[in-house]
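Need a sequence for this fold. Nothing fancy.
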């Protein structure tokens, strides 16, 4: 989850190749432009829990848009959209806790960067 939230799509794809025992070419093609149903089948064959499929798809779609120049986004926005996919701030459970922690880390990192930029100005 952390890997895809941070935009490490190639690394995530490599993990799927190993877990799902599919060819790298097939996994890359699915990651680049596969439909949700095909991607969910890939996630299932890799042994990923069904509860994770929606948030992984959400993150993957955003990173596709970024790669195609249709959107500017970072970890903060992607993790927020993943959290919204789970039900927003009120979402509970281990998966929601993980996504919330990723989002808070991104917020802190961005705030630190802004503070350093202001101090340097």
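Here you go.
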């Amino acid at each position: 989850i952390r890997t895809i939230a941070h935009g490490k799509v190639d690394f995530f794809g490599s993990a799927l190749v190993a877990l799902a025992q599919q060819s790298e070419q097939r996994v890359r093609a699915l990651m680049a432009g596969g439909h949700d149903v095909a991607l969910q089948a890939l996630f299932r064959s890799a042994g990923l829990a069904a509860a994770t499929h929606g948030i992984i798809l959400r993150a993957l779609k955003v990173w596709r848009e970024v790669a195609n120049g249709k959107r500017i986004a970072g970890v903060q926005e992607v993790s927020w959209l993943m959290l919204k996919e789970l039900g927003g701030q009120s979402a509970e459970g281990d998966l929601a806790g993980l996504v919330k922690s990723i989002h808070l880390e991104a917020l802190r990192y961005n705030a630190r960067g802004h503070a350093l930029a202001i101090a340097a100005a």
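For context: The chain has a mean pLDDT of 94.
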